[in-house]
Amino acid sequence: MGCDHRIDNSVVRSAKHKLLTLVCKHVTQAAGVVLGTLSVAIASATVAPVPCRHRRRLRLALFVAIACASGSAQATDTPAPAAIVAMIDAGQFHAAEAAITAALARDSVDAPSRAALEFQRERMRRIRLDFNLDADAAKARVRTQIPDLTDAEFAGWDAAGLIEHQLIDGEMRYFQRAPSNLFLLGEAARARRAKPAPPHVGPMEVANAHHREVRDAALASGRASVAPRHVRVTQSITVHADAVPAGETVRA
Predict the structure, then answer these.
(1) What is the rounded CA–CA span in Å between residue 196 and residue 89?
(2) Of the residues 28, 125, 196, 239, which has the maximum number of CB atoms within 10 A of its CB?
(3) pLDDT tens digit string along 42-58?
C-alpha cells in the first residue's frame, strides 16, 4: 500500500443491541456499532423515572435515552434464563458468569439459547466498561473541578442520585461520565466549581419535537418504551500507508 487508503464497508445489521443497565440507573450507551454502514433498530426511547426536582436540570436528556434498555432485552428471539438476567440486574456478576458458563457447557444447549447466554455475558462486559470508576477515582475527577471537595459533599450528592453508580459484586462502581454529569445534574456542584463554566448543551439536551413525542406517548400509554426509531450510521476508517499487509482484513 503506497498511500493512505479509505476503507468503507457496507455491512447492514438490523438486530437490536440493548446492553444497558436498568432504567433506574439513568445511564445510556450507544447501540452496537460495526465498521461501515450500520442499520440499527432502536426499540424505543425510554422514559427514566427521574425525581421531579432534577427533571429540568436533566434537560429531558434522560427522558429519551435512545437505546436504553433493561436486562430482559435480547439480541435473539430466545431469552436467557430469567434467573441469570435477574442476577445481572442485581449486580451479581460473578454468580451470573458461573451460571452462564455452566449453561453453555451443556451438550443440549441450542444455537439460539447459546446466543442469548452470550448476549448476557457481553452485557456484563459492557456494563463493566461503563462503570469503570471506584469511589476514589470518581472523587479525584470531581476534584479537578472542585479541589476542596469533601467526602461528605460527595456522599450527599451520591445519596441524592446525582452521581450515577451501580453495585457490582458488592463493590460500588461509578459511571465513567458520572463526575462530569454531576455538574449537569447538581446546581450546588456547579456553584462549587473553582472555575465556573456554563454546561455544554448538546442538541438532544434541550426539548425538541421528539422529546415531546416520547413524553406524550409515555403519559398516554403508561408504558416506559415508546416512539421507536430506526437509525442508520455510516462509518469509515483511514489507515497509514503500508500499515496493513496486502490481503489482510482490517477490523475495528
Answers:
(1) 37
(2) 28
(3) 333 434 444 444 444 44
